[in-house]
């Protein structure tokens, strides 16, 4: 009896055993579904997971997850892939029970809004091959259990938290934001959440790992040598972290293709074994503290494309293998102490686009071989010991945009073939021994922005054609032997901004009054020449000028009375023939004729010697002159006193002379509402088409001059006059002010697309203003504010930055309107000096200090920038802006939902930069806010930087 029972039991057992593999899927699928639903529940309501229910019944435990969005199963129904990348997913991973997914192969959650730590039980995903959690806001450390993922092939946890790229980036000119005074931004960065900590040495257990990508986080400590055991590792990106210590020696036995270590705190020599890495394509070591020699066999495999080692302390020779490394595309070795020969140690690189060897100890001369690198756009070998001539073949580099050979010992003439470089934007040859003439056709370089030829031995005249380089931002021809006069058409270089330096030459003749047209110029140096005559009055009207040096010339007569002249040190005017003026220690111009005064000075000694009587007589003459002058001055002053009381106040300046008050009245049908294009808090704005065809915007005021004191009126009109002089591409041009018995109005440039507020409030407008356009808008406003705060003396504060005051032209480029006028545009205040401002944009300190500073504009800018990102006023965000509340702020959440999340990494980085800057502008403490100069500089750098 016992036997059949036993047999039966065995049979059942065998059947169970046989059947088991086929039945297993069911229960495991259920636990997977349960685990997923539990996670879903913890995340709250997320539309992306709406398919995560059983389609047949509402019984969720029995549901089939294989049909859910983002889930992939194998044939027997086990979840093998969870992919919710780019879905805007929010929340944490804390409630995802990893132990329920023993079959999971891929986990891809990149580009979401996940926060919190990576849970330790991620180590339970024992079959996982692919893990991508990049571009989220995860924080905490990497769990040691990651070492249990022995099958994993790729791990990417890069860019968690807002990226650190902007703040630690390698800037083109080697400066860092710390130097620009934006410490508060760095502090902000330290507060943002991100992954960090040491890398556990257990990563060495992931024997199948091919790619480990940890860049743009806050990892520190040494690079674990156990990584050297990962024989399949080909991609290792540790860039932009805080790693320290050496590169482990055993890395030489890896098969690395892509090794990025730039921007860390690594030090010590590069192990010579790295030269064994014959598959290397990308190798970047820039911005660390490495020392010693570069491995000689760098390019052993002949595959190296991008190689950067800039800003370290490398010594010794240029690696031998670079010479025949024809695969090179981008090379940066600047700012080390490398030795070698620019001719012999380098070869011909058909793909090379960018090479910077500046500030090393390289010798030799520039051979014509370089001209065979046909794709070169940037060639920089400044600050070495190169001699010889620039070869004529340089003209063959058709794509060359930047040539910097400054601070070497180059000689000979600047070859005229340089004029063939039609893409050249930057020609920097200063501090060499160049002789001969400045090439005559220099104006034929249409893209030229920087021309620096100072400290050479150039002779001859400054070619007139220089005036044709209409994009020129800085021109430095100082410390040469140039003679002749200053070409007057230098005055047509309207883009000139940074400096115009012609000092230490042999220039003669008068200063051309046209220089006064350089409204954007900040520094003007004409010192140490033989310039004669008087200083043109027009130089007093250079709005942006902050420093001027006219010393050591033969100038005479009065100095213009402007801030630049007043704020420059007395030495800036010393050693001239006879300058006079009310400023510094100069003699006052107390004679009707400055020339005569000057001559008098020259002869004074003689006069005294020749005759005391003559001298006395002369003194009487001078006294007479003074009396006459004063009387005249008083009379003029009296005439000046009542210009505003004359019957028609009409001061349209810089405007087509034919335009008259009547034209505007006619064009608007006496301010008929059909011409009204907007109503501000204080004024109605009309569109007026003038008889000339020109369209202008007319802002009608309720007579702001009414009841004003004479003094106020005077400063009012002089202020308007100044404002009409301002030219900046991001500031709405004010043509003038017009007042009559009945009407007062301001005449502005017409902006086709109206206000930013209008565009953002319409669905169509918001869509049209895409991410790239919005980045441009924020930049434009930043530039305008920076210009008015820092390039105008005295600084001009807007006081009412809001989306209503930012207007867009037909290209959707931003122009700030009402600059400098905001304070008298507000109606209902008897005193026009009271401050304006729009609710929701006003800096908090204003309510208790009532003091208007630039930092109030900075605050309003912060609000505006967030508004541009969000598409609406960021109300909820602002009250919570104490630093701790900022930690959770993430880009994805702050973007306008009407536009889809940008796919372009560059745009994402730009938007992140703007978000970060905007938040720092909203600091409650005005002192912690950056300056607009800092903001626009960072935006500029961010946009230009692109990559390492
Ligand atoms: C859902 O299904 C499971 C098993 O299939 C069952 O145990 C449970 O009672 C069901 N729940 C409901 C609410 O129907
Ligand atoms: C990782 O593996 C070790 C032993 O190999 C084990 O003790 C530990 O529990 C595992 N951790 C996880 C999170 O799976
Ligand atoms: C991670 O961020 C959260 C806030 O988002 C914070 O509460 C937590 O302390 C952070 N954890 C670490 C380890 O920084
Ligand atoms: C080399 O660098 C350039 C510019 O940074 C980049 O566009 C290119 O993709 C890089 N090449 C490789 C192989 O990574
Ligand atoms: C660079 O290296 C030199 C010599 O190897 C050393 O004297 C110097 O201190 C180093 N500089 C830095 C900044 O590490």
TrEMBL record:
Signal peptide annotation: 1-25
Main location: membrane
Cellular compartments annotated: Cell membrane; Membrane
Transmembrane segments annotated in the record for this chain: 605-631
Enzymatic class: transferase
Catalytic reaction equation(s): L-threonyl-[protein] + ATP = O-phospho-L-threonyl-[protein] + ADP + H(+); L-seryl-[protein] + ATP = O-phospho-L-seryl-[protein] + ADP + H(+)
Membrane topology according to the record: Single-pass type I membrane protein
Keywords linked to the UniProt accession: ATP-binding, Glycoprotein, Kinase, Leucine-rich repeat, Membrane, Nucleotide-binding, Phosphoprotein, Receptor, Repeat, Serine/threonine-protein kinase, Signal, Transferase, Transmembrane, Transmembrane helix
EC number: 2.7.11.1
Name of the featured protein: non-specific serine/threonine protein kinase
Native source organism of the sequence: Ilex paraguariensis
Lineage summary: Eukaryota, Viridiplantae, Streptophyta, Embryophyta, Tracheophyta
